[in-house]
Amino acid sequence: MTSQFFLCKRVKRWKAHGNAVTLVGFNHDGAWLASAEDGGVRILDPLNLTEIGLLPMNHVLTVGFTPDGKSLITSGWKGVHRWPINRDTSATNQWRMGTLEVILPQAGFERACLSQDGRLLAVAHPSQGGRIVDLAKRNLHHLHVQINFSPKNF
Questions:
Q1: Mean pLDDT to the nearest integer, 77-82
Q2: CA distances to 107, 129, 145, 146 from 65, in Å
Q3: pTM of the prediction?
Q4: Per-residue model confidence (pLDDT) at position 144
Q5: Could you give the CA distance from residue 66 to residue 70 in angstroms, rounded to a whole number?
Q6: Rounded to 5°, angle at Cα 57 from 51 and 61
């Protein structure tokens, strides 16, 4: 069995607003990079790492775009939220966040993972187990099993 190693060249680096970057994720077309940090969620242009926007929130642990690119999902100490994105097509890389939607108000959800179609959201809490939320129907299912997250999702 042959092992393959790939070397990656660091192209750019950015400094977090808070103490740590906990997770990063690209939107569906790679035009934006979301960075979950202690000080909030930053949206960056991945080519030059300029900040496009900041959602000031404390202790965001997971961040990811929905597959259609129309929403941003966050989880952390303040619960699980969906942020609608209104992209301004008249200007390059301009966006506006819509009204925050609370998916789960309980604090402490450490990880969140969207299904490939963006309909189901699985979240994990260290003491309360896992939950699956049907985002289309707003149904919540409690799980008492171990949840493993795929590297394909955020």
A1: 87
A2: 20, 23, 25, 24
A3: 0.74
A4: 45
A5: 6
A6: 90
Please work out, in degrees rounded to the nearest 5, the angle formed at the alpha carbon of residue 98 by the alpha carbons of 94 and 102. Answer: 135
Q: What is the mean pLDDT of residues 114-129?
A: 86
Q: Which two tokens stand for residue 134?
A: 């049907």
Tell the residue number behind the tokens 């171990």, with chain if given. 146
Structural domains in the chain, CATH included, are: 21-143 (2.130.10.10)
Q: Which of 97, 150, 109 is nearest to 133 (CA)?
A: 109
CA distance 89 to 131: 36
Both structure tokens of 69: 């690119």
| Residue 54 confidence (pLDDT) | 83
> Between these two residues, 38 and 147, which has the higher pLDDT value?
38
The whole-angstrom separation of Cα 74 and Cα 62 is 5
